[in-house]
Design brief:
mainly beta, six-stranded antiparallel sheet
């Protein structure tokens, strides 16, 4: 599943906000842990039992909110594609990149 997304701003810093059914599709639920890495100009989110970050939200509505330096290499206004994979992996890349 692929979502076209424009990086928004919050208090003048870039922000990527992912929530709901798309996260559930990727096997991520409220309270799950994940790691985030940067490679080749993209962000990779991977579900991990002992990951450094945690999915927030309430009930059946999981949320991952990235802002500021966490959004690097993307800036406010950049068009990105968010790829959701059923194995607990989410890839965020520039819309034109393959």
């Amino acid at each position: 599943m692929v979502q076209q997304y424009t990086v928004r701003a919050n208090r003048g810093k870039p922000r990527i906000w992912i929530e709901g059914k798309r996260l559930s599709f990727s096997g991520l639920s409220v309270g799950d842990h994940f790691d985030m890495t940067r490679a080749l100009g993209q962000l990779l989110i991977q579900k991990r039992a002992n990951g450094a970050r945690k999915v927030s939200g309430k009930g059946e509505r999981p949320i991952i909110g990235l802002s500021g330096a966490s959004c690097a290499p993307f800036n406010t206004g950049d068009a990105v594609a968010i790829e959701y994979h059923a194995n607990g992996v989410i890839v965020i890349r520039s819309e034109g990149a393959q």
